[in-house]
Amino acid sequence: MLKFLLEKEFKQLFRNPFLPKLILFMPVMMILIMPWAANQEIKNIKLSVVDNDHSSYSERLIQKVIASGYFILEDISGSNTEALKSIEAGKADIILEIAPEFEKDLVKTGMAEVMISANAVNGTKGGLGSAYLAAIMSDFAQDLTTEQGLNAGQGFSSASINIVPHNKYNIYLDYKVFMVPALVVMLLTMLTGFLPALNIVGEKEAGTIEQMNVTPVKRLTFILGKLIPYWIIGFVVLSICFILAALIYGIFPMGNLLTIYLYATVYILVVSGLGLVISNYSDTMQQAMFIMFFFMLILILLSGLFTPVSSMPDWAQWISKINPLSYFIQVMRSIYLKGSGIMELLPQLFTLCGFTLFFNTWAIFSYRKSN
């Protein structure tokens, strides 16, 4: 009986002119576009410079800031008041003001003053822009100390500790390496969640569900017939994403690829089961879409996809504990970036298995079948 149900599901899928194209082209578009758009690296910060010294050192400092690649020199203002007008007009994001006698103070005392004023309307850009400038100042001071033996570092840093960063797992701090595995999870969630949610409702609107209700097909068999096709579709989508990530971004999993497929097997059943539960309680396609979109929005925003869960308020962290998306994102990033194995990820496996049992049991018992 299950064989015929699966045959029916695949025939319905391929008769639809839109769904096969969606399954193939959505992963391609997401992997091609989203890693570049969903990027929290701050670049192209518009800089306004107030150079009150007009010396060789101040010119060298300005050139070093521009050469960093993070800043665009918007204008050189004559005063701080003039530079503030640029910020108010939206032409500049940050002001670098160099004090008078900047070079003279550096040569004589090894100390000089600069002032950084940032537009904090966009707190991320203002905070990171100021941090970038401070780091460039520190590097500039170190250059002077090395070249001329000046005590210039005191003007830019209160500590004389030499810090050598060593980044683990993502040594070049490439944000795409961090985002691509999580975007694969989001894509898998949307496809294998939305499609089952619309499946049973579509049969309700077409009237074919009534024909199923008068057959001797049991509820468990019926739900399995709905789950297995989307489980297979999930594997196809996952494989497409792996190939694109390798070919386009050169991102390969540090761990075993089969471990990802193992966790994906469980996770797809979780979101497909949730979709079937929503489908069982919905009467129209529109109702199912709105309910699924509501849950998807919450799952994605509280999953740690864009912001770390540890940075969220306590109530949001508690919600993330019952969010299956957050566990699979942890799995994907751990395997891709750190090369983690099953033993390190056993808590996530047990939790996802619990979600699978819960949602699919609910889907079986909520399917209202009358003989």
Q: Which features characterize this protein?
A:
single chain, 371 residues, alpha/beta, four-stranded mixed β-sheet, 14 helices, 4 strands, 65% helix, 6% strand, elongated
User: What is the CA-based Rg, rounded?
Assistant: 28 Å
Low-confidence stretches: 150-161
Give the helix level as a range of percent.
55-70%
User: Which structural class do you get from the secondary structure elements?
Assistant: alpha/beta
Q: What is the count of β-strands? A: 4
- State the shape: elongated
Annotation field: number of helices: 14
Q: What can be said about the biggest beta sheet?
A: 4 strands, mixed
Describe it for me?
- Helix content is 65%, strand content 6%.
- The protein has 371 residues and is an alpha/beta fold.
- Helix 3 (56-67) links the parallel strand 1 (45-51) and strand 2.
- Residues 150-161 have low confidence and may be disordered.
Please give the structural blueprint.
Blueprint: H1 2-15, H2 19-37, E1 45-51, H3 56-67, E2 71-77, H4 80-88, E3 94-98, H5 102-109, E4 114-118, H6 123-148, H7 175-206, H8 208-213, H9 219-249, H10 257-281, H11 285-301, H12 314-320, H13 324-338, H14 346-366
Parallel strand pairs: 1-2, 1-3
Antiparallel strand pairs: 3-4
Helix pairs in contact: 1-9, 2-7, 2-9, 7-9, 7-10, 7-11, 7-13, 9-10, 9-14, 10-13, 10-14, 13-14
Describe the structure concisely:
65% of the residues lie in helices and 6% in strands. With 371 residues, the protein is an alpha/beta fold.
